[in-house]
Amino acid sequence: MKINQFANQLIPGCQPLTELAHLRLLATDELETCQPKELWQRLLWRVDCNGTTDAQHELRLHDYLATPSMALDEWLANDQPITDEIFARVALQLLDFEPALDFSLADPLTDAQGMNLQLPTYELWNQAAVARGFYQLLLTRTKHGQTWLDYLTGQGLLTWTYQLPAKQKPLLVNGQPIACFDPHQFIYEVVYVEMDHDTDFDGQADLIKVEIMRPADSNHGLKVPTVFTASPYNQGTNDRWGEIITHDVNQPLTHLAPDHQASQETKFTNPQRCQAVTGHAQVATETFSNTPGYTLNNYLAPRGYAIVYAAGIGTKDSDGLQTCGSPEQTESMKVVVEWLHGIRHAYTDRTSGITIKASWCNGNVAMTGRSYLGTLSTAVATTGVPGLKAIISEAAISSWYDYYRENGLVMAPMGFQGEDADVLAAETFSRTKRPADYQRITAINQKYLAQMTKAQDRASGQYNDFWRQRDYLPHVKQIKCDVMMVHGLNDWNVKPSNVKHLYDRLQSLPGDHKLILHQGEHIYINAFPSLDFSEMVNLWLAQKLWEVDNHADQLLPNLIVQDNVKAQTWTAYDHWNAPAHQVALGEEIIQFSDRQPETQYQQWCKDPGQWAKALLGQTNRFSYSIPLTALQSDYYQGTPHLSLTVQSSLDHGMISAYLVDRGAERRLTISPTMIERQGIQLGYHWQTDDLRDFKLQAQPSDYKMISFGHANLQNPHDPEFAIDLAAQQWVTVEFDLQPIFHHLANHHHLELVIFGTDYQMSLRGNENITYQVDLSKSSLTLPF
Q1: How far is the C-alpha of 517 from the C-alpha of 706, rounded, in Å?
Q2: Mean pLDDT across the chain, nearest whole number?
Q3: Annotated active-site residue in 197, 341, 501, 522
Q4: Domain at 183-235+273-525: CATH architecture
Q5: So what's the pLDDT on residue 633?
Q6: Which segments constitute the Xaa-Pro dipeptidyl-peptidase C-terminal domain (predicted)?
Q7: Where does CATH 2.60.120.260 sit in the chain?
Q8: pLDDT in tens, 472-490
């Protein structure tokens, strides 16, 4: 096991002894009145949350070994001095590492270093060394995915802090707020924020339901910051609706006229009227019992952050239509930030006209969330809205075109063939959960969905006004907040190009911009024992929202990447982009056919995974593989680019390419393995999280696809403009593959696989098309 802690550095100005005193673990005179071993014993007794008597504390120490053969309580009673080895041996046991299984009792320091644990060492273990070493141990991660202090918090160590006056909070340890807010006293309330748009055409400004969970201390003079998650899924989904209108992808690609234009999207109007203000309330009148929560938010809540959720337009208890990434949907989340910042109206209910302010908020807001949730965080950030100080966007879309289209092709997120913007809009239109409300809006919603289907233009895969409205990248220059991005290098749902495009554009802007790249697919990473993501977020948000001078922007690396060869290895880098090198692909003209026997075609449509095995198994006649054995590099980081000179036997066609790591290896799983269900306590008698991490596969695999790209032959250079392609016309197609940050293991080589239809993502019409590629006029550019 390796544990990587980037938030465990002592911040400048940190005073460990003072902070131990604030935690009521160290009395002011003990450094002078106690011997080192006596002080260590007292500290250990004070963190024993389950015992109340000296005898119970003593019995607990009897369960730990100070030497390979002597219990800790017996050793404390003799006159042997503390050494680095003894402290490390006890420390590892306190952190739940097991002797013989996780470390050697004979040499604990070496094994601790092998696990990447930074245990304290001192030439002389005097009283100050014991106290500082104990403080450092509190900040060190246990075997089970949280710092020892957070583990002890879950056992009840900090319940006394609940009674502290609000003005004394938050309590900070090493620049981070600790869980000193009682989760059982949280205030749950609902307000309705008013937009400037009318997206359901009823003449009235749309209202957005907002659910708030905040500490009771915020009713007693403490202004707290807010962590806001914009989730269209929050009020429920219509999965069956999505299934019904999912598009048929088993149809051919067709020739596109160069002057092809899609239908225009519905234009929304400004409201004819806003709700009349009839009064003002100090207290909300509506509450809620529970809401689908993000476990990172549940971790932050006892640390004093107000947690806010909103589902936006077209969702249960809000107004409007579901528009899937449009500027109006962005506005429905932006107005929530404005209300939290104190510059917009909200009402206590939908009809009374009584306004209410977020008087408990200090005006500083961060947005969090994965996938659609992180996407809306990015979208709101590009508006430059006041009050938004930071976003943590995980697996987020930066351009919806890059999600549902690619280089002139209709392209599904892998695993969701037939999904499109209209399908996602239908699935998240949770106003259906209120039958009478839905009955009133049915006709308008169906009309809008029909227009949306035409405007997204599945007849072509071209970039148009519909996708331009849902492209946040041209507005990145308006971002004023700090940005933390998280993305999986194996995420074929929201593909890595989405985060790479955002990352590249942020490099020229002022501000603090962080990126964490992991080896997973479309997942959260806040419950891994190998990475202190939650602590990094807490440190970072303490600076951005609590305005603590903890140097988080300097202490946390700007880029952290998980290695794909060495398990549980996370490394800081300066940049993603390496120099580009052009690789020749050969001299011959290659040829392959897209047509499959009907039985085979039907089988692969039902199980695209079998198609992928046939493609990469190198035993087919519908692709061409080019081993790139001449390359001499261990690390590839950046965006590969492919230039192919191609001919189709028809007047249309697509070309696809996979970049493959070829070589037998036990590779990391792309889906984390469950280690312990509900194994992480996020507070005392509070929420839990499942402990998970990436593991090496049980058996070696021969290959792994690490990047891919697709292009319509009628869009050789620009997804917005098609050329009038003729059958057997040579055309040079230029397109990027998905960005990579890849460690190529010894004795492995890269391989480029060129083919036509991608059964997992593209249209698949089984046309009788023969493709030819002139390798002498083609090249691959790789970053290394």
Answers
A1: 14
A2: 96
A3: 522
A4: 3-Layer(aba) Sandwich (3.40)
A5: 87
A6: 538-781
A7: 580-783
A8: 999 999 999 999 999 999 9
3-class state of residue 42 by DSSP? helix
Smallest CA-to-CA distance from 316 within 338, 292, 280 is with 292
Q: What is the DSSP string of 529-557?
A: TTB-HHHHHHHHHHHHTS-----HHHHS-
Cβ distance 203 to 341 under 8 Å? no
pLDDT tens readout for residues 633-647: 899 999 999 999 999
Amino acid 186 reads: F
- Judge if pTM exceeds 0.85: yes
Q: What are the tokens at 360?
A: 């408990």
641: tokens are: 């680019």
Asked if residue 529 lies in contact with residue 145, where contact means CB atoms within 8 angstroms, the answer is yes
393 is catalytic: no
Backbone angles phi, psi at 401, to 5 degrees: -60, -40
Name the fold adopted by 580-783: Jelly Rolls (2.60.120)
- CA 257 to CA 249: how far, in whole Å? 21
- To the query of whether residue 651 is one of the catalytic residues in this protein, the response is no
Which residues, 6+ apart, have CB-to-CB distance to 743 below 8 Å?
563, 564, 565, 566, 634, 635
Please choose, from the candidates 456, 450, 448, the residue with its C-alpha nearest in 3D space to the C-alpha of residue 419. Answer: 456
Binned at pLDDT 50, 70 and 90, residue 200 comes out as very high
Backbone dihedral angles phi then psi of residue 21, each to the nearest 5 degrees: -65, -40
pLDDT digits (tens, 9 = 90+) for 52-81: 898 899 999 999 999 999 999 999 999 999
Choose the catalytic residue: 491, 532, 758, 774: 491
Location of each CATH 3.40.50.1820 domain in the chain: 183-235+273-525
Cβ–Cβ < 8 Å for 542, 172:
yes
| Residue 290: Cβ within 10 Å count | 8
Q: Residue 102 and residue 636: Cα distance in Å, rounded?
A: 33
Tell me the CA distances in angstroms from 221 to 165, 215, 224, 281, 564, one per residue in order.
10, 11, 9, 17, 49
Beta strands in 267-350 (DSSP E): 279-281, 306-310, 346-347
- Write phi, then psi, for 205 (nearest 5 degrees): -60, 135
Query: Of how many residues is the chain composed?
Result: 784
Q: Does residue 292 carry a pLDDT above 80?
A: no
Is there a catalytic annotation at residue 518? Answer: no
* Residue 402 confidence (pLDDT): 98
